[in-house]
Write the structure tokens for this entry.
Amino acid sequence: MSNEFKQYKGKKVLVTGGSGFFASQLVKRLDEAGADIYVVVKYNSVIDNIRLVKLWDKINIVEADIKNADSLTQIKDIAPHYVFHFAAYNHVGDSFLHVMESMQSNAIGSVNMLEAYDGYERFVYIDTSEAYGYQAEVPFTESMTPFPTSPYAVGKYTGELYAQMKHHVSNLPITILRPFNVFGPYQSPKAIIAEVILKCLKGETIYSTEGIQTRDFNYVTNLSDGVLQAALCEKTIGTMTNIGSGVEITIKDLILKIHEYTNSKSELKIGSLDYRPTEIWRMQADNRKAKELFNWSPEVDLDEGLKLTIEWYKKYLEIFDSESSPLFDL
């Protein structure tokens, strides 16, 4: 843990969606730094929040639903110094099937959080690179006009606009970040890297589009550390900043890398699926602003991150996909 994160020691830090894949990594970093952590979850149940199982008795559980403003009134009593707002409906494709749930969580939920309490030292709004949507060129710079192309992205960008308004009108210390694609241990198989790793390890056939679209993938500790660094930087108040590697890779090349690193016998049927009608063809972060403002750059590159993630999923399968596992005795 970098010495600069010791500034969180003894501070009350509230993390919404803290049991989620990305946010749970940040919670672990905050625990290492000695923060007094409050995690907003829907249910006070470690079974529903397995990513935090080792910390469950060390953190403060706030049982609330960000879509319900009344359930957030307890935040005033907590009076956190830092708020990290991660909670969201977070699947791009599925948001077309669950439009209202996506908008309620990502737009209305964010408004509810921004209105629930304003006595913080910093509120960090976690937006998404999906907000950029269709752009004529890459890399994506913070000066580009967003063109979100999914209900998920529209909802997240709406929350960003509300955060910008709150800072402008009330001069509140709000930082806005747009992380690019994140991956690593504990990620849901609905995410492409987790899905492909698991199928490769299990020898299952992998179906994909032709895979010419590109993405900027980031190992989870890189992004969680970037978020923590940004929250400590005065220069990020009232601004929006990308957090991404600045490296793009085609989905086809990504699949081939994972297939190679897992020594998989899975059959690859690349080109067997149609592209989404709203496909974003290229995504790549311009991360110069993050480097300039708070001296952030990723420490774990894509290849190392993939190998670390593959090793974790091997252990995962030993526990969750084996009849000899103690888990099956439950």
